[in-house]
Structure formats: C-alpha cells, structure tokens
User: Fold these one by one.
Assistant:
Number 1:
Amino acid sequence: MSTKKEQVFQWLDERFQLSPLIEFMRHKMVPIHRHTIWYYMGGVSLFLFIVQLFTGILLLLYYQPGEDSAYESIRFIMNKVPFGWLFRSIHSWGANLFIFFIFVHMFSTYFTAAYRKPRELTWVTGFILLLLAMGFGFSGYLLPWNELAFFATKVGTDIAGVVPLIGDAIKIVLRGGPDVTGATLTRFYAFHIALIPAIFTIFLGIHLLFVQRQGMHEPESVANMPADRKKMIPFFPNFLLRDVFAWLIVLNLVLFLSVFFPWEIGVKADPFVPAPAGIRPEWFFMFMFQALKWIPPHILGMEGEVLGVLAFAIAALAWMLVPFWEIRSRSTGKLKPMVLIGLFALFFIIVMTIIGYAV
Amino acid sequence: MAETRRKFLNALIGTGLVGWLASVLYPVFSFLKPPELPEATVSSIKWGVATDFPAGTSEIVKFGRTPVLLIRLDSGEFKAFEATCTHLDCTVQFRSDKKDIWCACHNGIYDLRGLNVSGPPPRPLSQYAVNVVDGELFVAKAEA
C-alpha cells in the first residue's frame, strides 16, 4: 500500500518520465576548490534576471509610455503608488547589478578557460546574452523620458547610424523616424518589454540547457589533480542551497541600495533644451563612450567615429569567437597569451570607465 | 532518372520556400520602417521685437521640428545655427563666459561662426539667416 504522495508521483512519472530527471539530479556533482566562488556568478545573474522580470511586470501596471505620460507615470509610481519607489529602484539597481554580474561571470569563465571544448557554444550564447542585457539596459534607460536618457538615446542611435551603408536605415528603424521623439519611446518600450525578453528567454534556455548537459567546468589546476584529492558535493540539494544563500546576499544588496539610494527620476526631456553639462551614459557603456570621445574627428580620410565603432564591433566579434581562435602557448610561463588579452580587455574597460567618471 | 526528378522537386520546393519566406519578411521589414510624416516646411519664423533680446545671451528656438540656437553677440549682432551637434546629434549651447558654442555630450566646441574648433565634431554647424525687419526679428533658412 503506497502513500498518497507516492501515488501522485507515480501518476506523474508514468506520463512525464520524471525518474530519469531525478536520477540526473541525484548524480550531478559540483567540484569544490579554491575557484568555486566563480560558479555562483552565473546563478546570481540568473537570479537578478528573475528579479528584473518580477519588478518589471509590477512596473508595467502603472507605467504609461508616451511623450506626455511616461515621465509623469514614473513620478506617480515614485510618489503615489505604495512601495512604487521601492520596486522602481530595485528595477534600476537590479539592472545595473545584473549587467555587472554578467561581466564578472564572463571574465571568470574567460580566465578559467571554461569556454574550451565542449563549452564553445555555451560561451557564444553567453556573450549573446550579455549583448541582449545591454540592449535591455539601453532600451529601458529611455523609458522614464528624462533629459539624460533622451540625449543618451540620441547619441546611441546616432552611433548606430555611423555603420556604413545600412547605418541610416538602422537608425531610422530604431528611432521610428529621423529624430528621437515619442515614436522612439514607443519602439523602445516594445523592445524592452517584448522583443528583447523573448529573444533573451530563448538564449537563456539554450545556455542553461548546455550548462546542464555539460556540468561544471573544472579549471586546469583542479582537473589535473589526482582523483582522491578532488572534493565534490552533490548539486542537489547541497550546492543549490549555497546558491540560494548567495542569492539572498544579492537580494539584500539590491534592497540596501534601493532603500538608501533610491533611483532618481531627473528632469523631464525637452527636445529644445541643450544637452546638460556632465551628461554621461550608463556605466557599462562608459568605456566605449570615453574611447569614442578621444578618437579624432578624421583619421586617414575616414570619420574617426566610423573607425571607432568598427573597431569595437570587430573586438566584440573576436571576443565572442574566442573558443575558435584561442592562442595556446606551450610555454609554462605564468602569463599566457589569452590571459594577457583578457587582462588587457579588463584593464581597458576599468581604466576607461574610471577616466570617464573622473574627467 | 528518379534522381533528376528528386532534384527537380527539391529545387521547386526550395524556391517555393524562399519565395514564401520573402513574401512574409518583406511586409515585416517594410512595417519596421516608419512612414515619413508630412512636415510643414518652415522657411522662416518670427521671434519678436529684436530689442527684447539682450546682447551676450542666447536662446533655442523651434524652427519646425529643428532646434535653432539664436545668439546675440556682445556687439549686438545676431547669429543663428542649427543647434544639433554635427558629431552625434546632441543639442549644443552658447557659453557666454567662454564666447563659444559647446556640446556637453562629448565636449565639442565651435566658434561663434559655427566652425568646429576642437573635440570630435567633424563639420561646422549649419547657419541660419537672421533679419530684423521693422524692428522685428526673423530667423530663416540660409540661402543655399
């Protein structure tokens, strides 16, 4: 005589073949070593995505896109809606932390060479997720329709217009016309709440499926250890509980920032007011912004901007395809070519970001 | 014989699929491109009484959908430029202390003839004509 619980399980198992899945979960192991901390970064990014989804849906209930209503509806959310200020601040802070942790996740997988066979496509889908996350940031930034966002969008979409041949068409499609207007706001709203989430969800699904199929990557130093010195713990429930603990810490960080530093609304956008002094993009675009600022207007008869944008596009493509052209050195030296490239990328981003804020 | 027939049928289906895809995608891409809205062509706007504009100040005026930067120099002379930076589309401003035109987005600087002096702007600002008729100030598109 089986219990009710077992009966329910059996009913489901007969129909959905749950047993193999449970078997898979039972056998999934996570290596524990001094680089284990980096295993949490992907999970933290995932958690922040869920936070964005949740707070984003809440904000949808009150937000009204439109030149005359967007800014006012956010003011309403911040000032009148119970806890509106909290959820909007969580959404803004969460977005920034989301992208920050994706960067951390990316660089940690890069430096531990986790992109190598068999994880080439996991890396590629991860990079696409980063680009989509930046798309989330860029499109979401305009939605409050404030001055900073207005000019950031003008500049950002104008940069897209720099691309040879197709740039102008892209710019017009992005803006919904030749200028940044209410039509742009409508489009960015559609991108932010429908188009990008749909594509993101697909790539996230693939990315997570790959991770499940391939298991955790072991850094070279750990993989080379004798089997008896390796320490493993079961993913379920041991590692998952540690994951959840990391998520709790991050949730507390988001709440702390949102409560003590609520996100500002700024000044409502007015197309007939000059760009204010000290205008700057979101931090994750800052390194590109700063680099483009330094490029002279003309280089070898080409517009400097065109060269700069092309250089960034090529660099991004090369970064996405890292697993396919990796330079493997046989030298036993500490600094391998790929580590140097990674350090250069990291320092370039950090130094340019700091200069961008200091100047 | 059977193979040529298979090839022929595959080609037929393939062409059909491509045609079908094109007929689906063409309207989608066309939809993405916004239709051009009719815009009243503004050739000139009246600002008001010229003496109301203090020397050494500036104002951004709406010229149709275009922001135009109207400046009155210390000498009393009027200047007008399209206020959109030639670099990346931000709106420029007149700095009365530095006697120049400045774009805050990427630190682009123009002189009071609209010529780009330093920073990233690749081209001068396009100039508008300012006329005073019977004491009233008019801004007009410059003669090409």
Number 2:
Amino acid sequence: MISIRDFLVRGLLAGLVGGVLAFGVAYLVGEPSVESAISLEGSAATAPVHSPDVSTHRAALHDSVVGSVTTGTAADTAQFATASLLPPPSAAPSVDATLVAAPAHGGEHGDEEGTMVPRSLQSTLGLLTGTLLLGLALGGLAGVGLGVAVGRLGRLTVRATALWLAGGAFVVLHAVPFLAYPPNPPAVGSGETIGSRTGLFFGMVGLSVVFAALALVVGRQVHRTHDGFTAGVVGVLLYAVLSLVTVAVVPSYDEVPAGFPGQVLFEFRQGSLLTQLALWVGIGLTLAVTANRLVAGHDAAHADGSREHVPA
Amino acid sequence: MAHVHVQDATASAPARPLVLPVVSLRSAAPWLLLAVVLVGLVGYFVGAEQGATSVFAGNAVHEWVHDARHLLGFPCH
Ligand SMILES: [Zn+2]
C-alpha cells in the first residue's frame, strides 16, 4: 500500500533537486544584476529611497571598501554612478554622503552586534541556503499534494499530474504574485513601505492559492457533467479572471529611483522569474519520474493476485 | 476510502492499464498540514524575517538569505 509518506519523501528529493537548480540559475543569471544594483546603491539618486534595511547594503559597500584597501573605492563608485547615469544631486546633499563617507559598521541598529554577512557569502552560501530551504519545503508540499492528486484528476497519468501540479504551483505561487508585485533588486524600493509591501505580497500569494483552490473545486464540479477538457478550461479561466482582476485592483508601488538603469531592473526580474521557474522545473520533473516509479512498482507488486511479486 | 481507479497505460506499458492508488483524504490531511506549516515557516524566514517583522534580533538572518530573498521574488527593501 502506498502511503502519503512515500510521496512526501519523493517530494523532498524533488525539492532538493529544484533548490539546487534554482541556486544555479540564481547564481549565474540573477547575481550579476544584484551586484550591479548594489554597486549603484551608494550613489546619489538612489539615496532617497534608502530604508532601515540599508545597513545590509551599506555593510556590503563597506566590505568592498575594505576588500580593495582604499576607501576611495566607494566614493569613486558613487561618483561614477552619479556622473554616468544619474541627474546631478539637487537641493538635498542628502543621506548618501553619510552613507559613503561613514562606511563602518551598521551602527544605526543598536542590536546588530556587528554580525555582518559579507557579500561573498550572501551571493553564494547564503543564496544556496535560501533556495535549498524553500526548495525542500515546496518540494515536500508538492509531494504530498501529488499523493492527494494522483487518481483524482480524471484520466491524467502520474507523470502528467506531477507536471501539471508543478506548472500550476509556479503560476499560483510565483507568476501571479510577480505580476502584482514584481520583485525588485537592491536599491529599488522605499523603506517606508516595506511593511505594507510585505503584507500585500504575502496576501497576494494567499489570494492566489484561494483562487486556485476555488477553480479546482469548480472544475471538479463541472467534470461531473462534462469532459475533462471542458472542466479544465472552466477552472483555468476562473482562476485567470479572478487573479488578473485582483492584480489590477491591488495597490501598486512605483518606487524605482530616477536614473536607475532599466536594463538592470529588467535583468534582475528576468533572473528572478527564471530562478522560480528552475525551482519548479526541477521539482516537477523529479516528481514525475520518482512518483511514476513508485506507483508503477506498487502496481506491479499487485498486478495479479495469483502472481508473486519478483523484485526487478 | 481506498478504492482504486483503472487508468490509461503509460507509454512504456501499453498492454495493461496502470492502477493508480487513491490516498484517502483523512490519512493525507496531517501530512498536508505538516507540509503547509513547513512552507509557511520557511517562507517566512527566507522571505520576510528581519524585514517588516522579526522574531530574532539583529540582521543576521536577513543578511544570510538576502540574495535568495531578492531573487526568489520576496520584497526586501
Ligand atoms: Zn535587499
């Protein structure tokens, strides 16, 4: 008898694969734009949007300053950025001067106690930690979800169910929230709105999940009287309409600093989307293979009551 | 509730339809709950801790997963 735990184990394995794949894509495709954004961050035009969170990147800046021995580096970077792509800093001589001129320690938060993670770790081991942990958790959920879905979605095979599940999860958990609140690289986004943006982002993810559940229920209801294709189309359309209307009406934020290069913003968002896609491609393919093997093995073992199961 | 459906054969085994197991919702529910809680916890710590809210003092968690937070699409700044 196949238990849900068998599916969970395969889901965790799939999550491991997805997480590693996501790390690879994030590191190769996403990191260059993150680095560009951070190097732009010390500059004048981006200063007004600096947030409480700025200590992270100030620390990063500090690292690069220390790393290259001369304190001139940061100033040079800022100067370059200012000169090359940004309008001259106007009336407000502003925060950035302090940011660049006082590179040491994130002293603003009294409770930080100097635990600063250097950029070299944030972009490697730290990135791996985040993608792997989220991969494992989402993979585990996908495994359990597949265990529940197998045999319940019309005539879909195990492999087809796994791929539809992974594709659906990508759309519901990432693509739709992405449309409502496109992710931003460092240096983009106001510190004053981080609270509301975080709440709205997670709220959007939650609503998207609710809409998907609703579409699933309605689709299964339609399936009682119509074929699988019709039921699928009705479910997908319902989800699409509900989520797109929601995307259109939720508050949006226009916080890209003047002068921030559009190319960097585009490359970052592209890298982010590809990272999430890689996560679910890894989860979906791995689950399709392993869960199919699980079910086929189980099926073979019970193929015929009169036959003994001979291990292959 | 452990009834089974007879399904189409997969491409590699055309001769006999593959019997798909249908796991009962009752037995799946605790695992589903566990998985959802896991996703919630990981999603929170990777995606939001020491941003808008924090459980631990300081900035270490935020900084460690910082690039993952950005690239996985969570609001960071
Ligand atoms: Zn950040």
